[in-house]
From TrEMBL:
Organism: Bracon brevicornis
Any single biological process term in GO: TORC2 signaling
Protein origin, superkingdom: Eukaryota
Start and end residues of each SIN1-type PH domain: 1-71
Entry protein name: SIN1-type PH domain-containing protein
Length: 79
């Protein structure tokens, strides 16, 4: 799985989806892993913050999708 950022650079990721959250973890390769100025960081989004997910282009075994999420508010993070 790859993530395409705003400047259209592709980063290979592991995508974890459960009932509670979506986790996106970059796959670190040994050669040139930290060479570029942009590095994808591991992130986790609670399912209640996922606003939309839409499948896009399908090419063979690869599928592009769009994931839109909202940032948690202060009341979401406090007990």
């Amino acid at each position: 799985v790859y993530i395409i950022n705003k400047v259209r650079a592709k980063t290979e990721i592991q995508l974890g989806i459960s009932c509670e959250k979506i986790e996106i973890d970059p796959v670190i390769t040994g050669k040139g892993a930290g060479r570029f100025w942009h590095r994808q960081r591991a992130v986790s989004y609670p399912m209640e913050n996922i606003a939309w997910c839409e499948l896009g282009e399908v090419k063979g075994s690869k599928t592009t999708f769009t994931l839109i999420y909202t940032q948690p508010t202060i009341s979401d993070t406090q007990p």
